[in-house]
Amino acid sequence: MEARPHVRPARDTSEPKIQRLFAQEIGKLVERSGR
Length: 35
Prior knowledge:
mainly alpha, 77% helix, elongated
């Protein structure tokens, strides 16, 4: 569960921002590799 201690603070600090960035990056990747 604690395999990424350096990612814990970043997620707790800006969870919504990281989630949004991840969603955008995943969406672009899916559109490029998925479509």
